[in-house]
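User: Hello! I'm new to structural biology and keep hearing that structure can be predicted from sequence alone. Could you demonstrate with Retrotransposon gag domain-containing protein? Please show me the input and the output so I can see what each looks like.

Assistant: Of course. The first part below is the input, the amino acid sequence of Retrotransposon gag domain-containing protein. The second part is the output, the predicted structure written as tokens.
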Amino acid sequence: MIMPLTRNQASSTNEVASLQERSDEQSWLSAEAVRRQMEAEERHCQAEEWHLKAMKMAKQREEELRQQITIMKAATEKVRGLVQEVDIHALWRQPFSEEINRTPIPTNFRELVVDPFDGTQDPHSHLQAFQTQMYNSGGSDALNCKLFLDTLRGVAMQWLSILLAWTIQSFKDLAVLFVSQFIANKAKRLEVADLFDIRQAKGENLKSYLARFNNVMVRVNDSEQKFFVKAFQKGLQAG
């Protein structure tokens, strides 16, 4: 026969159970603290490892940059040495005669206002514009040759730089070679019949029509010009 627990016995049992629960909770907290500490230590170790790797990579990159800078400096010094061995003036003197080379450019010479020629424009138009400027400035034949250089760009400058030594004795020589080289860009000469295709547009004033007509007329290859007036009149709007 099981005897019922007395009040004191029940109280002792509850206290034991409570102590057991607190002990279990304390054990869990201790274990959790240990686990978290281990995780923190692991993260710290990983961070240290990544830091060391990053430092190593940074040092390697720094060393690579030093080597590249050293190589670049050596290459630069080599190029400087080669440049010093080249007679720059000889490169530009080659196409011209000694007389042209010796011709100085006056310090007070009037600056030319000519659109640069890059090898794609009409060579005749460029020569005409250049010679007009030189005529107004009073330049000599030799000076024409030297200043013509300043109007060339790109392909045109490259062309001049590869001409044989002493090829150019006068500006006429330079002009002939220049036109021959870029003759494909010469503007097409028009015929009288092209003038009869010009019409004054509806609403276009007479001044605008005359300007368009003149732009075409100067390109027509006809010394008599006897049909120019007829073509102009035919193109006028009626009324």
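User: So the tokens describe the shape?

Assistant: Right, they're a compact way of writing down the 3D structure. Reading them back into a model, for example: The mean pLDDT is 80.
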